[in-house]
Amino acid sequence: xxxxxxxxxxxxxxxxxxxxxxxxxxxxxxxxxxxxxxxxxxxxxxxxxxxxxxxxxxxxxxxxxxxxxxxxxxxxxxxxxxxxxxxxxxxxxxxxxxxxxxxxxxxxxxxxxxxxxxxxxxxxxxxxxxxxxxxxxxxxxxxxxxxxxxxxxxxxxxxxxxxxxxxxxxxxxxxxxxxxxxxxxxxxxxxxxxxxxxxxxxxxxxxxxxxxxxxxxxxxxxxxxxxxxxxxxxxxxxxxxxxxxxxxxxxxxxxxxxxxxxxxxxxxxxxxxxxxxxxxxxxx
Length: 284
Prior knowledge:
Blueprint: E1 5-10, H1 13-27, E2 29-32, E3 42-45, E4 48-53, H2 77-89, H3 102-105, H4 114-118, H5 122-126, H6 162-173, E5 181-183, E6 209-217, E7 220-227, E8 230-231, H7 235-254, E9 257-265, E10 268-271, H8 275-281
Parallel strand pairs: 1-4, 7-9, 8-10
Antiparallel strand pairs: 2-3, 3-10, 4-9, 5-6, 6-7
């Protein structure tokens, strides 16, 4: 089988979404879903897709559909803002939630004092610390058994999450580095699919987003995004809108301009029940 590769260069989020819909209708590969979301249905999927969006920050972020067409709007700017705030930035889970992307992006990266030893913090080595149950720093004293003490935040402001680390690393090591990558998921994520379940609501999943790559070039923050599986019609617009806001947030912290977005996936797709809507959006 020959893999079909596609690459797009777009101006805005809306432009990228329309190009992707247009091209998947031409070259997408159709296959039956044996396991996973909507098992038994069919997907129309890119073998491999990548793209660049040069001006992703133009408002509105949400895609446009022809006025009076009656087509469902996949998202709007308010929903995108909520997605950014709740799913990319807030790691606190609601009942029944196993994870959010923020679990890895802006959740706890390493527990203390394990993190203190991992980065070989001289403060920790020279001035052992004790944190009370309210998270307040108490008077330093020589303490054996620090491993049993649980606390969440570094008392001298070291980064506590991957997102904090990215910002801190750029500030302290300079903008000219290729280090700042946030991994989403871990080595145990795939095991969620092995968990027995009696109904669809109990089925385990692993995160579709797998990584965020931050680069600064010509004083612009470029954000690269990789998905293992990605719903093009409804997921792509809201996800990418959220990443625009994330790009703007980090750029503001670093006093640089928010720049282009890049993306790649071996699993960007439309479901069979979306194909009629897709053709209507394309005017076919």
